[in-house]
Amino acid sequence: MTHALTPLTTSFVAADGEFHAPSISEFFPDAVFFAGTPFELNRIGLIRIVVAIAIVLVLWLGTRKLKLVPGRGQSLLELLYDFIRVNIAEDMLGKKDGQRFVPLLFTIFVVTLGFNITGIIPGFNIAVSSTIGFPLVLAVVAYIVFIYAGIKKNGLGYFKAALFPAGVPKLMYVLVTPIEFLSTFIIRPVSLTLRLLMNMVAGHLILVLCFSATWFFLFSAGGLFTLIAPVTFAFGFAFTLFELLVAVLQAYIFTLLTTAYIQSSLAEEH
């Protein structure tokens, strides 16, 4: 089977002209460098490195010469930082705690957005948050931070408050404590990971399907099927705009939920 490549995304059209729908194998590409070693890098790994460098470069260029009257780049970064600080960190955690955690929350938002948005960038064509490694690492960071925040505020009593909520009859702890343990220490990181992962996977598969179908109808199917190509292309374009919205929204939701978990850890009572 030979694979054709459209300008927007990978298209799976066999040499015999038959259409082959995208599959989950797209998220496990062959190694590009250092195959068979612990440092093996595939296409997705390379994109992660490129995006990480790009994020660092953009933030450095935007902040290396801070001015009282900011330029365009500094203004955009300050606007984004203030949005995270005011509307998420300080709004949910209060001014004091918000200022403590806003650098972390800003980093989570920017990195998640950068890794999400590669799904609609020609040449990249896949969100690098659509494989479990990045969402899992990000969820572990959030997990460590909200537990740290709870211990820092309440000492080891944080675990007692989290597992044995005040005001619950003692006999009910037999039911309540296992539920609290699962919801706080298991379901939170799992849900953070899967929510981000599944949204990015679904978005990528939809885009590939639309543009692969366009390629197939335009160059392989022939006849009246050619008339369907503009329709599938229009759907692909619409889903590209929708995927851009999803990329931003998922970065916002991940940051918001991380803040909510920190807030619950800082609460005097759970």
Quick recap:
The chain has 270 residues and is mainly alpha-helical. The protein has one domain.
Q: Give the termini separation.
A: 57 Å
The total number of structural domains is 1
Outline type: globular
> What is the tally of helical segments?
6
What is the number of E strands? 4
Provide the succession of SSEs. Answer: EEEEHHHHHH
**Category from helices, strands and their pairing:** mainly alpha
Describe the overall structure.
The chain has one domain. Helices cover 68% and strands 3% of the residues. It is built from six helices and four strands. The protein has helices at residues 43-63, 72-117, 133-154, 157-163, 173-221, 229-266, and strands at 4-5, 10-11, 31-33, 41-42. The strands form two sheets. It has a two-stranded antiparallel sheet with strand order 1-2. The protein has a two-stranded antiparallel ribbon with strand order 3-4.
Q: How would you summarize the topology of this molecule?
A:
Blueprint: E1 4-5, E2 10-11, E3 31-33, E4 41-42, H1 43-63, H2 72-117, H3 133-154, H4 157-163, H5 173-221, H6 229-266
Antiparallel strand pairs: 1-2, 3-4
Helix pairs in contact: 1-2, 2-6, 3-5, 3-6, 5-6
What are the main properties of this structure?
270 residues; mainly alpha; two-stranded antiparallel ribbon; 3% strand; globular; disordered N terminus
